[in-house]
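For reproducibility, we list the full input for the iron/sulfur cluster complex.
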Amino acid sequence: MLILITSLGFFIRNINRLRRNINIGNGQTEPITNKPERWRNMLRIALGQSKMVTRPIAGTLHLIVYLGFIIINIELIEILIDGIFGTHRIFSSAGVLYGFLIGSFEVFAVLVLISVIIFWIRRNIIRIKRFREVEMKGWPKLDADLILYFEILLMSLFLLMNATDVEFQNMNNGNIISSFIYPFFSDYSIDTLHVLERSFWWTHIVGILIFLNYLYYSKHLHIILAFPNTFYGSISKIGRLNNMKSVTNEVNIMMGKAVESENSNDVKFGASDVTDLSWLQLLNAYSCTECGRCTSVCPANITGKKLSPRKIMMDTRDRIEEVGKNIDKHGEFISDDKKLLGDYISREELWACTSCNACVEECPISIDPLSIIMDMRRNLVMEESSAPNELNNMMNNIENNGAPWPYNQQDRLNWNE
Ligand code: SF4
Ligand code: SF4
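The corresponding predicted structure, in tokenized form, follows.
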């Protein structure tokens, strides 16, 4: 009980920290309208994994691990009740139904084990390109591997727990897989088997509670955040850029349609740090699974430019965490002379983007790296007047000639002569 309460306490503390960090975003978001469509998106994309299966091998393996993990954790209800009330397999009185459920869990456990091993081979032996990019070195790689080891351990413990449970084996109801493991323990005394079963039981439940608390520090937070992320994800037409309220307001002031307010001078255009982004963009960053599907289709990345949309999301998350720790330490954010733009994401990366939207289309959980890139570019252009020469020339031409070309408006129809 103490372990359960402590781990739930830590989990709630981390959820509160997550909410606080996401809410440091002050940027504008589109209104959350059309809830029926949003619910459909969440059910189709997050629950139904519809975008995962566009890559059949990874998608199917992921589906097995995802379903297996959810289904096997139903067993957790029984484990928790047994742990709290000192009972043993409290639901076993359900007879055939119980056998069917435990049997299904055992089959899923084996399928999850196989899938996770294939995932590990893809990452560590075949070394698929999108897992080898520069941003996947160090902690991100270790994190991805650790989760695979965790899953192997939890599934093995579940099967071993069943295999060493003499009472369960004697029931011969649902031990579809564990009955084949049981003979390996046939030389052990009943007392030893009991100790083993309890050890596997304890390690299994403590392992799940550790996993729960590890989520916050891992890309695997997506198993929770994929749901709100797909619900709140943009439902506008793909490729449509949002209007900046700050610009509309400035234009209205210039045209006499609005009056300048006292804090007009504090208006900021675009984003240079995470506090300028919207809560949805920050939710996106926390939801990123680091799968690299976006980067693998990014034309800039494919042609060797220094841009990876996955890195944009990872950098954003790292910076939010840094700002969050700063707030934890000082009670409020104290400037640390750092910014997302420049210290994490370079101008070169931002200007390499073709704004093609391929990353947005490809993301399996509706993340929009392009919106962050565009907001940071807007900041570069409108706050720092900093853009590549080609763009500056074009913008000057539009300003002077009303067209992107360096010709006088009167000469427009010269080609016609
Ligand atoms: S929108 Fe930009 S970041 Fe996304 S795929 Fe296209 S070029 Fe890459
Ligand atoms: S943004 Fe989406 S596609 Fe890109 S790494 Fe994150 S989850 Fe994968």
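The chain has two domains: 31-231, 235-401. The CA atoms of residues 30 and 236 lie 9 Å apart. Both points were considered when choosing residues for closer inspection.
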